[in-house]
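User: I'm putting together notes for a lab meeting next week and I want to include a structural view of one of the chains we've been expressing. I don't have a solved structure, so I'd like a prediction I can at least talk through. The sequence is below, exactly as it appears in our construct file.
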Amino acid sequence: MSHNATHAPDAGALALERLPAVKARTGLSRTEIYRRIAFGQFPAPVKLGARASAWIAGEVDGWIRDRIDERKAVTQ
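Assistant: Thanks for the context. Below is the predicted structure for the 76-residue chain, given as C-alpha cells.
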C-alpha cells in the first residue's frame, strides 16, 4: 500500500515522547505535569505497557502553543 504525502499527518502528531522529554520541553516537574493532568490542564499520557507511558508530541505542542497564545492575549 502506498502512502500519499498530501494525506500524511504532521509527524509530530504521531510521535510519542517519554516523561523526561516532556519535562524538558515544558519546564514542568513530574509532579506538576501529573497535577495538571488531574485538573484537565495538561494532555494525559498514552499507556504503552504495564509500566510505561508516553505523551503524543502533537498534544504537547498544542499545550505549549496555548501557553504562548495566552501570553499574547494578556499583552494585547
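A couple of points you could mention at the meeting. The longest strand covers residues 52-56. The chain is about 55% helix and 15% strand.

User: Perfect, that's what I needed.
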